[in-house]
Design brief:
This protein is an all-alpha fold. The chain has a single domain, classed as Orthogonal Bundle (Non-ribosomal Peptide Synthetase Peptidyl Carrier Protein, Chain A). Helices cover about 50% and strands about 0% of the residues. Helix 1 (about 5-20) crosses helix 2. The longest helix has 15 residues, at about 5-20. The model has no long low-confidence stretch (mean pLDDT about 90).
């Protein structure tokens, strides 16, 4: 599954840009380790963005986030999202 990580990360970046309709940012401009929800982030994501993105990831990749609040840790960066999706799809 490790070989698919770069492709999965790219798919997630494209999903972020298209789902959240982020203008002026191309998927390849998003760093794998860039914090998605920090004030320093160029993406400007908020809690509504998180819900929208969560739904899009569940639908697109056929995975489920737990309702126990642990999803927050997976939304730290594209890398952490890719790791979650890869492990949930096994």
């Amino acid at each position: 599954m490790q070989d698919s990580q770069p492709q999965l990360r790219q798919q997630l970046k494209e999903l972020i840009v298209t789902t959240l309709r982020i203008e002026g940012v191309k998927p390849e401009q998003i760093g794998d380790e860039e914090h998605l929800f920090s004030p320093e982030s160029t993406l400007g994501l908020d809690s509504l963005s998180a819900l929208e993105l969560l739904s899009a990831i569940e639908y697109t990749f056929k995975v489920r986030f737990e309702n126990d609040g642990s999803a927050r840790q997976h939304f730290e960066s594209v890398a952490t999202l890719a790791a979650f999706v890869a492990s949930a799809r096994r």
